Amino acid sequence: MTFRLLLASTALVAPAALLPAAAFAAEPAPAADAAADGAPAQEIVITARKLDAARDRIDPALGASTYSIDRAQLDNQPGGADRNLKGVLLQAPGVAQDSDGDGDIHIRNEHGNVQYRLNGVTVPQGFAGFGAVVDPRVASSVEVITGALPAQYGFRTAGVVNMKTRTDGFDLDGDVGIYGGSHRTFQPSATFRDGIGSLNVFASASYLQNDLGISNPTPSKDAIHDRTRQYRAFGYVSDVLSDNSRLSAFGGWSKGSFQIPNTPGLTPTFTLNGRTTFDSALLDQNQRQNSVFGVLAYQYAGAALDVQVAPFFSRSRAHYTPDPTGGQLMFDGSETDLAQATTAYGVQADAGLKLGERHTLRTGVFFSRQTTATASINRVFAVDAAGNQASDAPITIPIAQRQAGSILGLYLQDEWHPVEPLTVNVGLRYDRATAPVSEDQFSPRASVVWKPSRWTTLHAGYARYFTPAPLEIAVAPDVALFDGTTNQFAVKYAGPVRAEREHNFDIGLQQFLTPRLSITLDAYYKDKTNLLDEEHFGATLIQSPFNYGRSKGWGVEAGFNYEAPGFEFYGNLARGQQKAKEIVSNQFFFDQPELDYIAGHYIYTDHSQKWTGSAGGALTIRNGLGKLIPSFDLIYGSGLRAEDPAGIVPNGGTQKPYVQVNLGVSQNLASEKDDEAWTLRFDIVNLFDKVYLIHDGSGVGAGQPEYGPRRGFFVGLRKSF
Length: 721
Known about the structure:
single chain; about 725 residues; mainly beta; Maltoporin, Chain A; 22-stranded antiparallel beta barrel; 6-stranded mixed β-sheet; 6 helices; disordered N terminus
């Protein structure tokens, strides 16, 4: 059996005739799924699949660059079903890693700006840096969409992570598993799926605890004070109302607690109530966060008209607590007990209308209303006129803030086929954001996809983007509140955070050299105004936004994919950079000399990495027990930005390059026709135990140092039913 680890596509997804036959798994006949249930059940399955196909027709990623990973690939990569979403996404072209604790990734050298979708519906996000609410075990496939996006994609546009839920079957099935190993990792999980008449039900639940919840700030094998406990649950239910309509409801819940890891051997610089010594390894800083979201989606699929309307709701909360004995005060001169909550509700509606053989019109609307509240208790010391500590008794400064705003997006586009090998997609978006500053923009989009032969696909596109500023307000807008204290700001002004505006140009090629070997090449250029970046707020995972006035970025991505029966291998390499100048909002985050230099010079943003690579493969070996699948993957980074060794240019230095190799092997204990299998797996993370810095905390906007994971050994056992 061929294992397809990853399939890269730089343009419109090609029809089956243009891709190697092994790239497509034969879909089982509907009758086989429902033979025991008779004709009515068979008709329900056929209708559900027809509705799935219609939903995909509403918002295809025409002219964009799409990287797709299916369920079999997710299960057989190192880590299998227990791998987090960040680990999956790092195998896509141009995706670089950052902190482990919050799931940060950088797509095409962007700080964040990633949109997550489930079944075509945008999943409301909580706070920046919190990663995804759901994990890959709920997905039948994961797509990473980049480039010149068509008009239906708005607001978060560096990349779109689109997941389709595992709801394509009506038979009773699922799995129960346990996974664990190094860093005291323990991760049980379960999934369940069944059909009851016209109802389709899917549920997933997992728990994770380990001693490496956030990236280690030291190079040691074991982090100090880094325990995490994380719970996730997801549910989906749909009812096929008729041959042309379906009502679905799905939602997720996550809860996590994180210890903030410590760096031993630090020396206090402040005195607290007569105390001058404190062991930095004993600091007890913690963060708790939870999120919940829900979506109700109605879908209609007619002969020419496809519609989906999906109201949604989400709520997220985070609470950071400093060391209860005041230890952080002695090292930093300030500490904050910070709570932040955000609530959002809204609706997304999309429709597609086929007009003859040459035109398909698509239109839609997205509206969201969000409220964010922040409450902090800040403790600082008084200082004298020279800036020296004047008292060892802390001062308490409470701050409460609230911000509300809304975003509205409208789009209309036409997919036109003037001749058979050519597709032209032209669209226009209108976006408006009412907070923190009311702004709007009309955004044209255009792309061309040309297939001169069954082996070759080329695409080119242009997109204008509008990214509203996030509502996070984790710092006081009145910077004078901290005057005369150890937390006073050198810069006393703060411009408002504004929406980011971008011109994006993208061109790409997909070429099949043989029926089993394909290569891809994609190039892009970005010109931005008010580039959004974020600053870590102290030791917390919570981040606060600021803008660079101008930014320019470019990149080239290359990849290949080879597959044969029982074997698969892929590789990706990206070269890119992002530079920006003039910080134009929340300037009080920075020192005046830093602001002065950036005002007149383009600097690398801290999340810009020159070279980013990934590769992997797998082999399927049939033996007397079932299937043995050894696999591997690796990630390469030339290093994020760091402080200039000469101390002149902000972000003028670079971290050292690194390669992290992961191995996995799974043994399926079942016959070919037995779906109720046991699967035993063994994985090694960072096979060669390479010690490397993700970043050293010295860049503009960076937090504390973070190292990549050291070598770890993990085993898992999973029972399918």
